[in-house]
Design a protein that fits this description.
The protein is mainly β and 722 residues long. The chain has five domains: 53 residues, Seminal Fluid Protein  PDC-109 (Domain B) (Ribbon), CATH 2.10.10; 231 residues; 100 residues, no CATH class; 32 residues, no CATH class; 105 residues, Immunoglobulin-like (Sandwich). Helix content is 1%, strand content 44%. The strands form 13 sheets. The protein has a 32-stranded mixed beta sheet that branches. Strands 13-16-19-22-25-28-31-34-37-40-43-46-49-51-53-56 form a 16-stranded parallel beta sheet, with no helix packed on it. A hairpin with a 4-residue loop joins β59 and β60. The chain is flat. The protein starts with 25 loop residues before the first strand and ends with a strand.
């Protein structure tokens, strides 16, 4: 028998799988974690096997049911399908129970530690077992559900959704921070705080103050002996009695009689099916629907839509912000302020001032004794509308019936009157919004009250005549003249300034419907224009006539100024004048063509203008017989200085495209006599289309009668042909 002594050393750069070593040496494979023994011959030696441990032998762990060993030596215990006992606890699948029957199962903390449960919590009875309806439950959202009777003998704080199915009695205060549902009667003898949706399917009796921060639904009689504060929707299907201050900050539905003895504040919509009696101040900040009589013995402030299907009696001031619909008589003794639409079906009697911001529809007689302010549309269908006091209407007004207004009336909006209207006092129409489809004031004779849509914005008055009748506007004056004046100013309404020069002050134009519709500028107009910057001493002006030529358009881009009446230039035209009768004038300045169908009588000098059509001066080259070209209604010719013997003449041609007909009359004169006395005579010796001939004759004779002068000639053309 022999033993092996163990000693350790490290051999670097040696692979365990190829190392031989000495017989009996043990070596450790760092790469694989295996223990090997050498026989002195085999590379890598032999791997030592480790047997499972026993009660007397040290060894490894043997894998088996419930115990798994991975390749890296990790031990995993899996009790699936296997019972596991730890002390007096039995663990099977996901169930933990006591080993001994009827033994308590306790969860204890060590000191001040907490027991934390994460997930939904369900409590079931032993007889019902698992997966039955829990008698108590809390879900992940913090909702609490109780499926049995709940008796609390002290303060109760419920943070989450809470459901009570059965009678519930709280002898102390109750605080709920989640939804609360009660299917039986609920009686609280202390302060109640509900911070979520609250549903009561039975009677509710509260002897203390109630604060609700969520929706409240009550399907039975409700008695609140204390203050009620509701922040959420409120639905009451039975009678409600409130003997304290009530504040509702949500939608309110009440399907029974409501008696409130105290201040009532509603911030939300209100639906009331039954009589509502309020003895105290009422504030409603939402939609209100009353299907019964409404009696308010105090001030009422309604902010929201209000519908009353019954009589309304308010003994105090009324403030309404929202729509108001009243089907019945309305009697208001005090001031009324309405911000919203108002629909009144029945007689209305208002003694006091009325302030309405919104549309107003009245079907019935209306009697107002006091000042009336309406900002919105007004629709009155009744035979008599009597307003004694000032009336201010901002919005459209539609009155079907006779209207009698005594006092100034201010209307900002459209007014439609079907019937006679007598206005005694001033009327002011304030229309600030631009509109391209309707004039600020529409007067139409159309049978259907229609009109053509304006093309431009800023139309303040549009008058549409009756079909097949001329549309006439008369200005009648007794003992004086009628005047139509267009005024223009710069600056602002509060600080006007003077108008610049050469700008239109006033236009009178005509526009015709064409194949593309209405044009924003018609084919003809007359403009009143400033000639200079307008001051106290400089106020010059002129009148311009603008027309559009035939076969031209659109007129906004082709219209041109054709004639002007100016204090300095007189009557001027860019295209000439045509008259069919006699013309008797003083000085006449013609800058273009003029056609006169009768005699022309001049009371002064005829001035042939050289502003336009003058050809200027041309010099003859070559000889005195060389032709020249001078295109114009007038011009000057400097003849060649060649010699011309006495008692002889020379003729040359003037090419001129202003000669349109052989009947035209050229006129020629000598501008500068070169000798004294003048020895030259000049005349037009021939006319052709596009030219005329000039003949110069030297009348001198005898010795020294030959002259070499550059004679300057003036010519002008009188049009005779067509």
């Amino acid at each position: 028998m022999s033993i092996q002594k163990l000693f350790g050393s490290r051999r670097p750069n040696v692979s365990a799988t190829t190392y031989v070593g000495s017989h009996g040496n043990l070596f450790y494979d760092e790469a694989t974690g295996l223990l090997r023994i050498s026989d002195g011959v085999t590379p890598g030696g032999h791997v030592l096997a480790i047997n499972p441990a026993t009660t007397t032998v040290v060894g490894g762990i043997k894998a088996g049911p419930g115990a798994n060993v991975s390749i890296d030596g990790t031990l995993t215990i899996d009790t699936t399908g296997l019972p596991l006992s730890i002390g007096n606890l039995s663990i099977s699948y996901a169930n933990i129970s006591t080993t001994n029957a009827n033994q308590d199962l306790n969860l204890l903390t060590n000191g001040t530690g907490n027991i934390n449960l994460i997930g939904n919590l369900r409590v079931q009875t032993t007889s019902a077992g698992l997966y039955s309806t829990p008698v108590f439950g809390v879900d992940n959202r913090g909702n609490l559900t109780v499926n049995g009777n709940l008796i609390t003998n002290g303060g109760t704080y419920l943070v989450g959704t809470t459901t009570f199915v059965g009678p519930t009695v709280h002898q102390g205060s109750i605080t709920t921070t989640g939804n609360l549902t009660t299917t039986g009667n609920l009686t609280t003898n202390g302060p109640s705080y509900f911070n979520g949706t609250t549903n009561f399917v039975g009677a509710e009796v509260n002897t203390g103050n109630v604060t609700i921060n969520g929706n409240l639904i009550v399907n039975g009689p409700s008695y609140f002996v204390g203050n009620v504060a509701e922040i959420g929707n409120l639905t009451v299907t039975g009678n409600a009695v409130n003997n304290g201050t009530s504040v509702f900050n949500g939608v309110t539905y009440q399907n029974g009689n409501v008696i409130t003895t105290g201040v009532l504040t509603i911030v939300g919509n209100t639906s009331q099916v039954g009589n509502l009696t309020i003895t105290g101040t009422t504030v409603n900040n939402g939609l209100s629907v009353f299907n019964g009589n409404l009696t308010i013995a105090g001030n009422a402030a309604l902010i929201g839509n209000t519908t009353v299907l019954g009589n309304t009696t308010v003994a105090g001031n009324t403030f309404v912000t929202g729509f108001t619909t009243v089907s019945g008589n309305t009697t208001v003794t005090g001031n009324t302020t309405v911000v919203g639409q108002t629909f009144l079906t029945g007689n209305s009697y208002v003694t006091g001032n009325t302030f309405v911001t919104g549309n107003t529809t009245v079907t019935g007689n209306t009697t107002v004794t006091g000042t009336t302010y309406v900002v919105g549309n007004t629709y009155v269908t009744g035979q008599v509308t009597t307003i004694t006091g000032n009336t201010y209407l901002t919005g459209n007004s539609f009155i079907s019936g006779a209207a009698y207004v005594t006092g100034p009336t201010t209307v900002a909006g459209n007014v439609t009157v079907t019937g006679n209207m007598l206005q005694t006092g001033e009327s002011i129409f304030n229309i600030t919004q631009q509109n391209s489809v309707q004039g600020a004031v529409e007067i139409t004779g159309d049978a259907n009250a229609l009109w053509q849509t304006p093309v431009n914005t800023g139309v303040m008055l549009q008058v549409t005549g009756q079909a097949n009748n001329a549309d006439r506007v008369y200005f009648d004056s007794l003992g004086s003249y009628s005047v139509l004046v267009g005024r223009r100013f710069e600056g602002s309404m509060s600080s006007p300034t003077g108008v610049q020069g050469n700008v239109d002050m006033f236009r009178v134009g005509g526009s015709a419907y064409n194949s593309t519709g209405w044009s924003n500028i018609g084919p003809a107009r007359m403009s009143f224009v400033t000639n200079e910057i307008q001051t106290g001493t400089n106020q010059g002006g002129r009148i311009e006539f603008w027309t559009t030529a035939n076969s031209a358009g659109p007129s906004w881009s082709t219209i041109t100024r054709t004639a002007t009446i100016d204090p300095a230039l007189g009557v001027t035209s860019n295209i000439g004048f045509v008259t069919s009768g006699n013309l008797s004038v003083g000085n006449v300045s013609v800058t273009n063509n003029e056609t006169v169908g009768g005699n022309v009588t001049l009371g002064n000098t005829f001035v042939y203008s050289t502003v336009t059509g003058d050809a200027g001066s041309v010099t003859q080259s070559g000889t005195k017989a060389t032709a020249v070209t001078s295109n114009g209604r007038s011009g000057r010719i400097v003849m060649n200085g060649a010699a011309l013997t006495g008692q002889n003449y020379v003729t040359f041609t003037v090419n001129n495209n202003y000669i349109k007909n052989v009947s035209d009359v050229p006129i020629v004169t000598i501008q500068n006599p070169v000798t004294t006395p003048n020895n030259y005579l000049v005349s037009v010796s021939g006319v052709a289309v596009g030219s005329f001939n000039i003949t110069l004759y030297n009348a001198d004779s005898g010795a020294g009668s030959t002259h070499s002068d550059a004679v300057v000639l003036n010519y002008a053309i009188i049009r005779v042909g067509g």
